[in-house]
Amino acid sequence: MSSSATPPASDGGAGIVSDGGRENRTAAALPRTVGFIGASGVMIGVCIGSGIFNTPPQIAGQISGLWLTLLCWGVGGVLALFGAMTYAEMGAMFPQSGGVYVFLREAYGRAAAFVFGWSYMLISKPLAAAGIATVFSSHLLALFGGVPKDASGAPMTWVPIAVTCVLLIVSTWLNARGTALGARVATGLTALKIAGLLGIVVAACVVSPGAVEFTEPAIEKTTVVGALVMIFAAVMWTYDGWADVGAIAGDVKEPSKTLPRVFILGTLGIMAIYLSVNAAYFALLPEGAIRSGSDSNPMAEMVGASIAGSAGAAVLLGLVALSTLGSTHGSILTGARVTFQQARDGLMFRFLGSLHPTRKTPAAALWVQCALSCASVMVYQTFSTLAGGFVFSMWLFYTLAGTAIFVLRFKRPDAPRPFRCWGYPVVPGLFVLAGASMTVLTMTEKTGEKLVWLAILLAGFPVYAVWSRLAKDDSPPDHGANR
Questions:
Q1: Of 212, 218, 281, 386, whose CA is between 20 and 30 Å from 362?
Q2: How far apart are CA 429 and CA 423, in angstroms?
Q3: 34 has which bridge partners?
Q4: 298 near 142, Cβ under 8 Å?
Q5: Which positions ≥6 away from 77 have C-beta within 8 Å?
Q6: Residue 122 CB coordination number (10 Å)
């Protein structure tokens, strides 16, 4: 890889980035229509989904007490913030679609970028979008009386799958209609869910909580390592999404200025919301009630009931459905940009890098992602399996992308950096250390399942070797200048 490059200008103009001795004129096929508000709405919308409702019972099953709980959420937020500051530097250097994919390509070359894009398209993003959408369908059905039963009284298990797939298809259609439309929908849904979460915080301050019936479960007995794995896998799943805004960098106006602000301010905002809402849960519910939350006994329903009885329970179930609707929508919007950029680089089937002729959206990549997400729902069905595969595969690459900042500082010391990571090298170093620890720790739980994901990931290397040999034109296409 060449040791120097001229990154894209801060106004979004095209730049030449070096890649394995080739000059790749980046990206500007996507029109820059997303501003600070829209990008923030996408980021926060992806991040705040089902986790803030689903993970507190899991954490309460391992530890006890408000302050220890808030400490775990605070540590998770700081790690996400360190990652956001690290990625903000690289995102401002290379403001094009792809995010982590672009950072890996620029630091380590095409093979590493291909393997990430391969696993992201086949594993990470389909599992993430499908996992969030399953929570939407379960809470929506709970709002209307649960999963319907057939004549024999057995649950019609195909109904949640069908509802989940319909959500994925409709959200993909909205995103394929136009990036600006997709960002506006994401921003609107984000505003509604934030209002709902702040309503819970206000209620905790002014409402006398009502009695909530629950079965008092004990804290699960496990090893310290096992408890840490469960807690931080749950916390970091809930924070996940802070990195996704980098994937739509090619759509963002004045990206070198806008992206660092979105990365940092958005992550701080998410952290404040999560800490406040967790404190509100402890004010509204006994700790045993939080611990008893499950798919069949949703915590959101208990929180709503403690505020306003059955009407409150219905409102909170609706809030979870709304929240996961927004998160699924944002996840679909950002995910296809990685596959799109990979195809534009000649590292994936060329049709996946095409744009709709009039709407200028990566429609082909969006619909392929939709098909893979629906297939994931049909095969794995449960939220825990879908989320577990995503957390393992993505944190491995989050860590590798974090180390890219050190590689780029060494190889391209004089390259323009519109934003420099605060606290370098300590901040990115701690993020990389935490990410590596997360990856190792997650391997200790359900190891067989993780090995399957790892095998698919590693298969990307021989696939890349075959791809490189079979490609008729190994050089990336001219992407054109950004206008």
A1: 386
A2: 10
A3: 252
A4: yes
A5: 239, 267, 270, 271, 274, 275
A6: 18
What tokens were used for 66? 């408000």
Residue 406 buriedness (CB in 10 A; 0-12 / 13-18 / 19+): middle
Angle at 122 between CA 116 and CA 128, to 5 degrees: 95
CA–CA distance, 183 with 185 (Å, rounded to integer): 5
In which region does residue 153 sit, left (phi positive, over 0), alpha (psi from -120 to 50) or beta (all else)? Answer: left
DSSP state string for 248-271:
GGGGBSSHHHHHHHHHHHHHHHHH
Distance, CA of 457 to CA of 111 (rounded, Å): 12
Cβ pair 176, 355 in contact under 8 A: no
> Exposure pattern of 252-277 as b/e (b: 16+ CB <10 Å)?
bbebbbbbbebbbebbebbbebbbbb
State the DSSP code for 63: -
Radius of gyration of the chain (CA): 22
| Residue 392 CB neighbour total at 10 angstroms | 24
At 136, list the tokens: 């939407």
Q: What is the pTM of this model?
A: 0.80
pLDDT tens digits, 178-223: 777 777 887 888 888 889 899 999 988 888 776 666 666 666 666 6
Distances from the Cα of 264 to the Cαs of 60, 118, 179, 220, 454, in angstroms? 29, 28, 23, 35, 31
Rounded Cα–Cα distance for residues 144 and 165 (Å): 18
Structure tokens at 113: 């970028």
Domains and CATH numbers, the chain: 34-469 (1.20.1740.10)
Residue 353, CA distances (Å) to 110, 294, 342, 369, 382 in order: 16, 41, 7, 13, 31
Residues 69 and 278 sit within 8 Å (Cβ to Cβ): yes
